[in-house]
Batch of 3 targets.
Target 1
Amino acid sequence: MAGRRAGLAHLRGSRLLSGHAPDALRSALAAEAHRLGFDGVGITAPVISPERAAAFERFIASGQYGDMDWLAREPSRRTDPRTLWSEVRSVIMLGVNYGPDEDPRTILTQRSGAAISVYARGDDYHDVIKKSLKTLARWLVANTGGDVKVFVDTAAVMEKPLAEAAGLGWQGKHTNLVSRGFGSWLFLGAIYTTLELPADAPERDHCGSCRACLDSCPTAAFPAPYTLDARRCISYLTIENKGPIPREFRKAMGNRIYGCDDCLAACPWNKFALEGREAKLAAREALRAPSLAKLAELDDAAFRALFTKSAIKRIGRDRFVRNVLIAIGNSGDAGLAPAAKRLTSDPSPLVRGAAAWALEQLLNRHAFAQAADAALAIEADDGVRAEWEAGC
């Protein structure tokens, strides 16, 4: 669940070149997109299918979006691209393969290390893709005229249904886009244009009877195929959720401190994902399997320095260290208890509460009772006090 940022880029062309046959324009567009690092390109009309619109409306009605209130605002704007921009006539959907060079689930057995979602191990994909999208949009304007708007996970755009309609892939049972060429590892971006462009054929569903993604979820976040309850999803809990991690999900988190790749990594179509992978999306070595002990030492300045240009930076230091402490509690490593103990006096109640839970998991009953007595003698926050009392 990456964060949303409002905004869009709007470019305007003043002329329309004559003599551009639709097929020639389509080929030239694809060639330029691939030159700029995009692995998939497709064109569709600015229409969300009734089936996808209805699924989104059911998702909102069920409340399964949790605290992501922006999804529930004016849902009609999401189910009809023309309400976002009435002049749009075609949507160009672009995909960038970010398939990892190793199975991201391997780190889950290294309990003193931190598991960070593949998409967040490098530079913020919003910035990486938007730069290329703007360049492609300028090329389109310069060569064909018209107006364009550029989106990367911004504004009220339903990227996955549009990508499906444009032939880039299909929405799998885990609700993410699946590509026959790149599996579940595609970043998506969109260019809205006033040009009437020939649409590509939509992709059909190739999931068949496979349940690998559904069965892999640690928190049973899929009540049914093609249906996600975000409130149970580790990506939501570690990124979008601003409060304490609910106790019922803490053990299942393991050492996942930012996002969760389990359902994506389980997809059999990933066998093709390494082909065409762009080096600019490679993971930073420091974020492949960082030490929980080191991450627990981060103050705000150190957090900002480590995650410069990273999507992780947007959740802030306190939420991040909260996640680290849950992983420390799940590590089974008593040697990490001093790191958790130090954070019981952190200025943030969110961090102090998570530290109390981590100590509950790592200390014996007598040692925890002593730590709880000392903390409760000075703790003023009701939520943090409840964490200590729950362990006694």
Note: The two ends are 34 Å apart (CA to CA).
Target 2
Amino acid sequence: MTLSLYSIQPHAQDCDCSVCWSQQQMATLTVSQSEPCDQCRRASAQRTQITAMRCVGGVWIVTQAEWQILPAFTCEKHRPSDRPPKYWSVVENIGKPVPFVPLHEPFQLVG
């Protein structure tokens, strides 16, 4: 059976292949950590008072204003951790380190 014919066939109801498993996991996903909740907010700026305006080409524009800045807030659940991910802490553990001992005297091979 060729690959194109195999990929077209429907999967059984109790199939446990990686494709069916991935589709089941995607269907059961909860709210992502990247999506902000109702406690999180983005930084924003609001104009509170206009202090100067000017007429340019028959249209009044604001030339100077006072702004109120609201800083961003991220709740504890969505705040990134201070530590790196667990898989990154040990790249490769090959055992006890071996010190480098330089040779200062020339030597000859015996044998």
Note: The first helix runs from residue 3 to 8.
Target 3
Amino acid sequence: MRTSISDTALRQLIEREAKRAGFAAVAVTRPDAIPLAPARLAQFVDEGLHGSMGWIAETLERRSEPSVLWPEVRSIIVLAMNYGPDSDPRDLQSQKDCAAISVYARNRDYHDVMKGRLKEIAGKIVARAGGDVKVFVDTAPVMEKPLAEAAGLGWQGKHTNLVSREFGSWLFLGTIFTTAELEPDEAEIDHCGSCRACLDACPTDAFPAPYRLDARRCISYLTIENKGPIPLEFRQKIGNRIYGCDDCLAACPWNKFAQAASEQKLAARDDLREPRLIELLALDDATFRTFFSGSPVKRIGRDRFIRNVLIASGNSADAALVEPCRALLADPSPLVRGAAVWALSRLVSRKTFSALAQLALKSETEADVIAEWQVTQAEPARTQA
């Protein structure tokens, strides 16, 4: 039940508490403010562009219409947290002995950080205004980006991510659904113009057209959501990116405003700014879990992570990585063993690789790993280790 607080006072409360909690921006929209989003999402799924992310198709109805997710919602408060990096993350790609982890994953899992703060704000809204609230951060079937655009926090750029005139492409989004009737903010308009910097920056050509993403070609999908071997056609293009990819975000010209933003930001862990491949290759399950405790990286598990590190190792031309990669040919995980095969095919001479294949194939029983040996033996060697 709504208590006797004015709409102006409630809005001031929301903005004050959002700032106190470290959010860079907050705005309000209606649950019916994204009428075009359902058809666009359905097309994305119908064309199979979501890849193996079956949860998108399974939650299609709830995801496309906020009132289906919660019929009582009357207003949606959209909050944004700035995580802009201090430098261009693409600079790390020239350091072949290091691994590039997406900026968003270089600290605590933002889902955990934001959800706790959203709950605090939501609790104060209920305490002052009554009613009911629900908070969501990314993992729930909520289309945060269209809602953020409708609320005026930014617009969905040609890379399909939210772009802000104040913070560029570096914003985490969360929402508070409320039964309170709040005055909505004016929607933002598209300011991309003729620019296609984000599209041209994609290493794997994951954008079939502006504003459309083929997740199956996206390095973030390939290194995070994809559970199997990295498709051969993308391995060299991945470079040293072992978790996600920031290229399309980093290329956005609007980021120049993000650097000057004074709001509190989520800073990266020092040990995740330039982690060395040789150290990451040594992680077993226990040390992986410890090293990435509280990090979103932990969610993909050690085997998928080491798969990614091995792909980066194969692209490194670093002879110091040969022995660590060779040791992983005996790893319990077929996924890891297969990736180690490819890495070694790039790091050692044809003669050395052939000898390794003859020895390994005597005991290898997994079809995928055997196929890796067969395919990579036909590839030319890259070094003379």
Note: The mean pLDDT is 92.
